[in-house]
Structures are given as structure tokens and as C-alpha cells.
Design goal:
4 strands; alpha+beta; Outer membrane efflux proteins (OEP); elongated; four-stranded antiparallel sheet; single chain; about 425 residues
Length: about 425
Amino acid sequence: MKKNLLIILSLLIFPFDAFSATLIDALKQTYTNNLELQAERKNIEIQREVINISKSDLFPSLTLTGKKNFEQTNEITTQAGADASVADVDTASASIKIEQTLLDGQGRKTAYEKTKLGLNLSEAQLIKKEQEIFLRAIEAYTGLILAYEKLNINAENVNLLQRQYELDNARVSRGQITASDLAQSQSSLSGAQARYIESQNNIVTSKLNYENIIGIITEQEKLKKIYNVKEKIPLSLEEAKKISLQKSPELIIAEIEFGQSELDVKIARSDLSPTAKISLERTYTEDLSSTYDEREKDVLQATVTWPFQFGGKDRSTVSKNLKAKGMKRLLLENAQRNNTQSVTSAWSTLQSSRSFLQAVQSQVKAAEIATEGISFEYESGSGRSTFDVLQSRSSLINAKINLAEAERSYLLAQYRVLKSVGLLNSDYLNLK
């Protein structure tokens, strides 16, 4: 009876259906606190500054220069034996120079275009990271709820088997059942108690996993079980494939990297082209040494340079980048193939998990009816044995655990479909 009381108390301590925190709350917490996501968002800020740096190269450069020079020379004796003399030099100058590149084989413009692709790449990488971490968070969230469900199911089973053992113990004393029947009952109770202890340990592990990915759970914070995703998922496999072509971060990353490789070829070729620059400089000079002197000078200068590498460095760079472009094209084709396989697999898993859930729901209903009937027949002395009761009870418990796992699997399958098409991100989930 003492053990039974402890189990009942445990049910009061761990009521999963009294949870109040939602999955969206957990995902918002993940979005805010996850260090990997913070790093990816910081990288986007860096890429915006890289764009500004590259853009500045497209504009003229302005240089201001100022110089002040004071020099004193003391001559003690001269070769001719003349008296000592002092020579002072006091000059000041200032200049302003503006310079603009007129021709560079489109190198600067191409580099600027590549930096903009770099920003797009960082944004796609953030979405990819969000999808990976959000799915892990969902797995941790539902995993902890499942652990509590299993704890409650096993606790209920221990309570019922404890009652069964007490009834069988009384029946043995009355000679209604044999000692072997009682031993079966005791064995089932001990096994149920062991599974209950194991489920307690699983809660500890699941909670650690939750807190590692999502954050700390307070004693007041409870988790609320859900059965279907709140967000809209594709209605068909064809729709899922269509969405993935536009939204899949893996596919977008491969496309951007291929685009960057094309620009790398253009940049390398621009290094083989001549460069033309024009500059205008105005200089003002003052000489205050002995005779006051002021000078102004304007210089307009045009410069053309055409580099030649006798070792073939620049042409080898072009060849290397062309080969890299070919490699990125192959990776893009592979990403397209993998995208189709990923979406198809996720969709198939969704359909099978839905069918499995429906089957398990029917199994639980049938097991409940069978257990109730067999228990009634056993208690009324209608020929049912202890083994029959224990076997039906075991089947029901297994069915309930299968149902809890199937409900979680079906929910995860829905979110994996969203991930496969590229929608498991902060924007689509409204986490910002």
C-alpha cells in the first residue's frame, strides 16, 4: 500500500496535461537564446558591412594632405674661414586629390555583385541553421512530453498491478488460485516497477536535452502537448516539391555558390584587362624662410596600366576558377536531386505515420475493451486465469505507449515536411 501511495503521488507531481507553455513559446526561447543562431545573425550584419566596403570602391577617392616643415641649420665655420651663419627653412603645403577609376574590366562592379550574393548566402545559411535547430527543439520538446506520458502510463500500470497482486494474494489464501499464479502476478508487478524507474530516468535525460537546446525549465513552467502543427503544410507532394524549389535553403545555397563561382571567373578575367584612372590634384605651398613665397599648382593626370604575367599566374587563376565553376554546377545538380529525394521521403513518412497512428488508436480501443472484459470475467470467476489478465494488461500498456510514440512521430513528420520544403524558419513560424 505504501508503494501504491508513492505512485499516486508521482502522478500528482508529473501531470503532463496540466502543462501551460506551448511549443511556440519554446521555439521563441530557442530563437532568442541559441548561440548558433545568434552567430549566424551576427554574420549577416558583417556581410552588410562587406557590401558597404565593396560599394565604396565604385566611387571616386578623395585624399587631403597637409605638411609643415621647419629646418634650422647652424654653420659654425666655413671652409673659407667666414663667420658662423644660421639658415632657416620654414615651409608649409596642402593638397587635395580626387581620383576615379574609369576602366578595370568590370572588376570592381563584379566584386560588388559578389558581396551582394554573399549577403544572400548568409541569409540562406541562417534559414538552414534555423531549420536544423528548430527541429531539434521540437524533438526535445515532444521528447520530454513523451517521457512524462510514459511515466504516467507506467505509474498507472504499477497501481493496477499492485491492486491485482493484492487481490491474487487474498485468493491464494482462499485456495482460488495457485502459488504460481501469484508468482506471475508478482513478476508482472516487479517488471512494471522496473519500467517505472526507467521512465523516471528517461525524464531526467529528456529534460537535460530540452534545456541544452531550448533553455531552462522553471518549476512553474509546464509543457502543453499538441497533436497537429499550427502552420499550414503542403496539401500534396507536388505542392511540396514546388515550394521547395523556391524555399529550400540547401538548394538556395547551392544556387548562390554557383553564381559566386561565375563571378569569380569574371573577376579573374578582369585582372587581365587594362586599368585606366584619372586624377586631379591641387597643391598649395608657402615658404616663410626669408622671402615670402606662395605657389599653387593643378595637376590633371590620366594613367593607363596593363599588367603582364610572364609566369602565367593570372591565366591559371582564370582556369582554376572555371574548374571551380564546373564543380559548383555539379554540386547544384546534386542539391536539386537531394532536394527531390528529401521532400519525397518526408512526405512518404508523413503518410505512413498518419496511417500508423490511426491503426494504433484502433489498437488501444480494442485493448481497452479486451482488458476490461477479461478483468471482469476473472473477478467474477468465469474461467479467466491470472495469465489472461496479465497478458491483456501488458497488451494495453504497450498499445498506450505505442500511441504516445505514434502521436509524437506524426507531429514530427509534419514538421519534417515543413523542413524539407524550407518553411521551418522564424518567419513562417512567426517567432520574431
